[in-house]
Amino acid sequence: MKIEILGTGCAKCKTLEEVVKQAVAKVGGFHQVEKVEDIMKIMEYNVVSTPGLVIDGVVKSTGKVPTVDEVVKMIEEAQK
């Protein structure tokens, strides 16, 4: 599973990166986590408010930092 964190380096983007790492540790298994800071690539997802969270190419969250449990739920739903 590929998890992308969209953001140009703001505080919320860094917080989301930590939340995602915690969620991945909680879920277990192999997940590729990538931080995307290229604004053109972020725009390809039609995300205008960062941070953004993309799981396997699907935008799951924008403009806020979900909790660890919310990210765990998103990962589990994407695995189905």
Automatic annotation (TrEMBL):
Superkingdom of this protein's organism: Bacteria
Domain Thioredoxin-like fold: from-to ranges: 1-76
Disulfide bond as UniProt keyword: yes
The UniProt record lists the keyword Disulfide bond: yes
Keywords for this protein: Disulfide bond, Redox-active center
Positions of disulphide bridges: C10-C13
Coiled-coil region: none
Active site annotation, chain numbering: C10, C13
UniProt-recorded name of the protein: Thioredoxin family protein
Organism: Sulfurimonas paralvinellae
